[in-house]
Amino acid sequence: MKRRAGQDRGQTASWKPATRAVRGGTARSEFGETSEAIFLTSGFSYDNAGQAAARFRGDEKGMTYSRLQNPTVEMLEERLCLLEGAEAARVSASGMAAMSATLLSTLSAGDHLVAGRALFGSCRVLVDTILPRFGIQTTVVDGRDPEAFRRAMRPNTRAVFLETPANPTLDIVDVKAVSDIAHDAGALVIVDNAFASPVVQRPLELGADIVAYSATKLMDGQGRVLAGAVLGPAEWMEKTYMAFARHTGPVLSAFNAWVILKSLETLEMRVTRACENALAVARFLEGRVPGLLYPGLESHPQHRLAMAQMSAGGTIIAIHLPGRAEAHGLLDALQLIDISNNVGDSRTLMTHPASTTHYSVPENVRAEMGIGEGMLRLSVGLEDKDDLIGDLDQALRAIGL
Q1: Which residues of 107-125 are buried (b: 16+ CB within 10 A; e: fewer)?
Q2: Which domains does the chain have, with CATH numbers?
Q3: N or C: which end of the chain has fewer CB within 10 A?
Q4: Beta-carbon neighbour count of residue 385 at 10 Å?
């Protein structure tokens, strides 16, 4: 495999994001294929025993085993670095594999983690239940208040973990302010950026140290494969993350890496269109439903901060109805929009978090997070906005709204 001309970091630095998303990281075999090749192999052979030993010692670059390196996977990792502005990236089998490996590699027994209260359900279980089993202390704060992070810091705080916009409440966290607070205390800042993607928000430019993704979401964005990604400093990636991941194996398959590579070619167009649709749908819903949150609307209490950090309002809308009966009633009345717990898809999807994505979170914790029985999460896709508005209009009328 050889890099296509112009593929070192210095030469690609002048490329615009759309060009990086199509051509970044491309490596070609002797056949000169235009589309990235899929290397469906678990292992690799060596010219001689000395070469094998040299690669395992790290004295010679090259592939050893697809749990550690794979040409297709490495192309994806390089492309993500170019899109995110990161030194290093590693991809994983799912978003939760990325989140758990990031936290478990960074933290040890006796360390302390501060996390924003509003997180994806499994992330909240990880923070509240799983990490403490390994002797890691955790404190959850209202991420909307940067000073809450300052008050929670301890001498043994090693990391801060946050999601912005948060799932599903759309809380916005001031990444720069929180990063300054964490760095003053010697802690790393880890941001789950799945709801935004690097098209809408680049946390590393705002001061974060590490950014993590469920690449299943907008990066694939077509509901086909599971994938995760972690990006950050090269030294941290090698000495901290890979010291854990190379022995625990949260690796992405070559085929799924290829699917994400091809999806990245249209990421900017898809995200831009979905954000435009979401803004139109949010404007229709505003005033029609009892409560609504969308960062792109001035009615969002953190609209100014969101627009300072994000280039658009995102693709997710939080709708608040009186209770579960109304929420389920609206879901059951939908004719075009799918009931599904996924987000970031080309299809518009809606779910009831209290009974799906956050069902495993205790009821009192859901209440603390702001997830009520009447909340619905709407992930806006690429359909015609008028068709989406029409479907929501008839579903709302069906429940008397």
Answers
A1: beeebbbbbbbbbbbbbbb
A2: 2-264 (3.40.640.10), 267-398 (3.90.1150.10)
A3: N
A4: 19
